Amino acid sequence: MENIKELEDHIKLSTPFHDLEIYVKDFEVSRKIRIKGNHVVPGGLHQCPYSELETQLSLQTLIKMALNKGRYFRDEIERSENPNYLQRKIEILLKEFGIVLSHKKMLDFGCGATDVTGVEVNDPLLDIAKLRLNDFFPNRYQLVKIEYIDGKYSMPFSDEEFDIVWAQAIMEHVLPSQRKFVLRELWRVLRKDGLLVIFGTPNRLWVKEFHTSNLFFVNYLPLDIAVFLARHCSRRVPVGQSKQELLSDGFRGCTYWEIARALPKAVCLSNVFRRKDLSVGIQSWRGDTDSRLRRWMIELFGFLMKAPDPVFAFFNLPQTAFLPSHILIFQKS
C-alpha cells in the first residue's frame, strides 16, 4: 500500500489468511477493492501480490466471499463481472452448438433468461450464490441445498424435470469414486431430448495438471505419488494438504471415457457435430491471452488437431477427449 492514510475510509474484510488483506471502499453504486498478499487473478496468476478492482457486488456479498474464498476472492468476483472469464466462453459454446436457453427449465449443478435452479452441497458457497444473485438478479433464481451424491442420495427433483443440466467446471471437484453416481443422477433429472453440458472440467489426459498444482505429468501417475509431488513440488499446494482436500480442490480431472461410461445411452453431440468442440476450445483459449506468440501456438495446435479427426471419428471419439479441458454435450434420446 502506498500510504496508510489512503485506507482510513476503507473497510478491512476478514480472510482465512494472516498475510492476505482485503480493503473495500463503498461508493454506494459500486465498491473499490484493494487486495494485498498473494492471491489468484484471472489468467492463471496464482501469486499476485497486489491488485485493485471495482465491483457491483454488495458489501455483504464481499464480506462472505472474503471469509470463504480467501486467495480466490478476486477470482470469484471476476466470474460474474468479467465477460472474458465465463460469459464469452459460454456464448461461444451456445453459438457453435446452436443451443437455445430461452423458455427452457435449467439445472445449474454446482452453482457457486431462463427458469434456472441452482444446487450446491457447500453451505457457505450456497450463501455466496444467494447473495450474488440477489445483487444482480433478485427473485429470478431458485437455489437448493443438496447432500453429497453417493449412489443412495437423490436430489429433490422428479425424473426428467429439466430441459438442460449444466455442469460448469464442477466434475473435477467431485471425488473420483462418486462421479458415476453424480452423472447418473444428473441424467435422471434430464428430460427426453434434453442436454447435459459438461464444460470446463480439466482433462486428465492433458500433459499438465493446470487446475490445482500446475505440475507437468502428475496426471499420469498413481494418485499417492501425484499427491506427494503436489505437496512438495507445487508452489500452489500446501505441504500439509490432505489427499481428500486436494481431490475436492479439483486435483484429479476426468477423461472422456470416464464420463461416457457413466452415460451409456447418451448421444454425444461433440461426436455428431465434428470439431465443434475444437472450435469452441480454440476460440476460448485465444481470448485468454494477449500474447501474440501464445495465440499463434493455440492456432497451430487447432490446425494440427484437425489432421487426425478422421481417425477419431472412426473410433467415435470427440476432439475434446484430447483437449486440455472438456467441451461435452450429451443428448438424452
Written description of the protein model:
By secondary structure, this protein is α/β, with parallel strands linked by helices. The protein has 2 domains: 4-81, no CATH class; 87-204 and 253-331, Rossmann fold (3-Layer(aba) Sandwich), CATH 3.40.50. It is 35% helix and 24% strand. It contains 12 helices and 13 strands. The strands form 3 sheets. A 7-stranded mixed beta sheet has the order 7-6-5-8-9-13-12. Strand 10 (208-209) and strand 11 form a beta hairpin. The longest helix is centred in the last third of the chain and has 15 residues, at 292-306. The chain is globular. The model has no long low-confidence stretch (mean pLDDT 91).
Keywords:
333 residues; alpha/beta; Rossmann fold; 7-stranded mixed beta sheet; 4-stranded antiparallel beta sheet; 12 helices; 24% strand; globular
Write the topology of this structure.
Layout: E1 11-13, E2 21-26, E3 31-41, E4 45-55, H1 59-69, H2 73-81, H3 87-97, E5 105-109, E6 115-120, H4 123-136, E7 141-145, E8 162-168, H5 179-188, E9 190-202, E10 208-209, E11 215-216, H6 223-233, H7 243-248, H8 256-262, E12 267-268, H9 269-272, H10 276-286, H11 292-306, H12 309-314, E13 325-331
Parallel strand pairs: 5-6, 5-8, 6-7, 8-9
Antiparallel strand pairs: 1-2, 2-3, 3-4, 9-13, 10-11, 12-13
Helix pairs in contact: 1-4, 3-10, 5-8, 10-11
Task: Please outline what is shown here.
The protein is an alpha/beta fold and 333 residues long. It contains twelve helices and 13 strands.
Percentage of residues in DSSP E strands? 15-25%
Main structural class: alpha/beta
What number of domains? Answer: 2
Secondary structure: helix percent? 25-40%
Can you tell me the CATH architecture of the largest domain? 3-Layer(aba) Sandwich
Q: Note the total helix count.
A: 12
How do the helices and strands follow one another from N- to C-terminus? EEEEHHHEEHEEHEEEHHHEHHHHE
CATH top level of the largest domain is Alpha Beta
**CA-based shape:** globular
CATH superfamily of the largest domain: Vaccinia Virus protein VP39
Q: Report the end-to-end length measured between terminal Cα atoms.
A: 58 Å
Strand order of the largest sheet: 7-6-5-8-9-13-12
